[in-house]
Amino acid sequence: MTVSGSVKGLRKGTLYLQQLQDTSLVSVDSFAIKGEENFVLGADIDSEEIYFLSLKKGASDSLMTQLPFFAEKGDITIETQLKTFTSSAEISGSENQVLWEEYQDMIRQFNTKSLELLESYVKNEDSLELAEKEAKFEAESNQLLKRKYLFALNFANNHKDKVIAPYIGRYEIAQANPKLLDTLYANLSDEVKTSTYGKALNTFLQESKSASETASEN
Hints:
The chain is an alpha+beta fold and 218 residues long. The chain folds into two domains: 92 residues, Transthyretin/hydroxyisourate hydrolase domain (Immunoglobulin-like, Sandwich), CATH 2.60.40.180; 122 residues, no CATH class. Helix content is 47%, strand content 27%. It contains six helices and eight strands. The strands form two sheets. Strands 4-1-7-8 form a four-stranded mixed sheet. The chain starts with a strand and ends with a helix.
C-alpha cells in the first residue's frame, strides 16, 4: 500500500503511518515535512483494515493528531489541511473507506437524534411525573438504539463481500443479538472471513458462545 497526498499549511513536522497492534498504535512508516506539503508513505498489508495517518508538528509535541482511514492494497490519496487535519480530509483509493464514510454519516444522524432526546428530557417541564418521564425517555432511547443496530446490521449484510462488514459486526455492534451476528458472519464471503476483521469477528463469536455456555452450566 502506498499512501500519498498533502497537508496544506504544514511546513514542518512528521507524518506517521500507524497500525493498531493489540491495543497499541505502532508506526510502520514516517515522513519528515521540511517546507514541502506533499508526502509519501507505504506499508505491506495482508488485509484491509483501519490505519492512521498521524501528525506530530514538532519534537516537543507530546501528542499526535490522528486521522483514521480504511487501508487497502494499492494507491491511496489523502488531501487535508493543517488546521482541520481530520475534519477536512479527502481520502480516495479505498472502496472500504467510501463505505465507511457512508456508514459514519448515518451513524452521526443517529447520534444527533440521541442527543436531541437527552436535551428534550432535560428541558422537558411538562406535567409528567419523574418516573413516567424517565420511562418515556428510556423507551424512546431503546427504540432509537434498536434502529441504529438494525441499520448497522443491514449495512454490513448489504456489503458482506467487503471487510467493513465484519468490522462493523465486531467493533460497532458487538452488543447486538448474537444470533444476528452469527448470521452476519455466515453470510460473509470466504475471502472476507479470512481477513483481519473476519477472523476477529469469528473469535469474538466463539468466545461469547463459550462464556454463555459456562454461565449456563454454573
